[in-house]
Amino acid sequence: MSPLRTAGLPVAALAAAGIAGIGYAIAETHLFTLRTAELAILPPGSSPKRILHLSDLHMTPNQRDKQRWVADLDRLEPDLVVGTGDFLADRHAINPVLDALAPLLERPGVFTLGSNDYLAPRPFNPARYFLGPSRLDAGRRILPWQDLVAGLTRRGWVDLDNRAVRLDLTGWTIDSRGVNDPHIELDRYDMVAGPFDPSATLRLGVTHAPYRRVLEPMAGDGASLILAGHTHGGQLRVPGYGALVTNCDIDRARARGVSSYTGFGSMGEHTAAMNVSAGLGCSPYAPIRFACRPEASLLLLRAVDEPSGH
Ligand SMILES: [Fe+2]
Description:
Largest sheet: 6 strands, mixed
Mean pLDDT: 92
Bound molecules: fe (ii) ion
CATH class: Alpha Beta
Helix content: 10-25%
Order of helices and strands: HEEHEHEHHEEEEHEEEEEE
């Protein structure tokens, strides 16, 4: 048997495994998952609240399964919905996004935008992520993001891009603030800086990309909860190791899920709970996920003095 022939078998096996892996990674982009977490962060005596955290839909008009799945999340009956940006991946996706969100837009909601709401996707080399946070490509077309903002705010959701807003809801109050996307340096935390209202039921900080220069003052100003997206959870995770990259400057361990962040600000040193969503989509030019299912998060908030499970 020639050396070429003996070498051919493992090469063929490797090629088959690679094709199967890519096939699975494409299929995983449709395996939408709800991740649930309990957080004991409300003041003593508070009644439980449910926050639905959506991020990184990267919607295109033909993604009907994702649109149906998002619309069905209304059955969870959240008390607040938070969208942390990258809703769009196509200039014609605004109505599909608004239609998918329609039931949830009947509920209280806040949002920030991400870079992909402003700029249409373009082909890129995913390997560049391993060289550090991605940079903007020149020549990306501007998306009609103003129509997205108008559609969300017309239904009552609150735009937190470099804004702070107090929400007086039935049975609870939220002191909320957010920044425009730090990944493209639109964040102006100075416009919302200062101590959170300690009497609010929830002190909420929102950002698309979880950069430390935003997380630190948000936590230090007394946020009880910070929500972010952008990382896609690493998008390609190694089982047992986790995310390889975050596409920003937080550590890999916090690329997805609940953690905490300690910062120093007007409240001195303070620690906030943090949820980073792996998001529900990805660039149409890199439609793969591995060991990192597309997700929405349901955060079950309870009082610090309330035992788990109540
Ligand atoms: Fe994204």
